[in-house]
Amino acid sequence: MLAVAAADIAKNFGQWHDKALNEPVIVTKYGRESVVVLSVDTFKQLISHYREVVEPSEMDEILADGIERSDIPEEYRWDSTDADVPNARRGV
After folding, report:
1. Biggest alpha carbon distance in the chain?
2. Of 18, 11, 19, nearest in space to 3 by CA
3. How far apart are the first and last CA of the chain?
């Protein structure tokens, strides 16, 4: 990933804008990374997988009831005592 000083971004925005269309550009201020300039396509791809995490107390009753009644499909069930479960999944 490219890194550039904020002062250079200010002076040559068009150049860095064009580079950010191909890969994210890290902007530094006083030598420290502060923000990233990236294309809209990259941004949309990142947020397409975004999932909001909320405290159970913040959920509305319908959502909480749906989660409580949900079931794990058989093909995704596993038990930590199964012989084919990797140690990493067991937390070992």
Report:
1. 60
2. 19
3. 34
**pLDDT recorded at residue 76:** 79
Q: Where are the domains of the chain?
A: 1-75
CA distance 36 to 19: 12
Q: For the segment 17-33, what is each residue's pLDDT rounded down to a tens digit?
A: 999 999 999 999 999 99
Superfamily of structural domain 1-75: YefM-like domain (3.40.1620.10)
Burial of 27 (0-12, 13-18, 19+ CB in 10 A): buried
Tokens of 36: 């990233």
Q: Is the separation of the CB atoms in 37 and 28 below 8 Å? A: no
Q: Where are the beta strands (DSSP E) in 30-82?
A: 32-37
pTM for the complete prediction? 0.57
pLDDT tens, 40-79?
A: 999 999 999 888 888 878 888 888 888 888 988 887 777 7
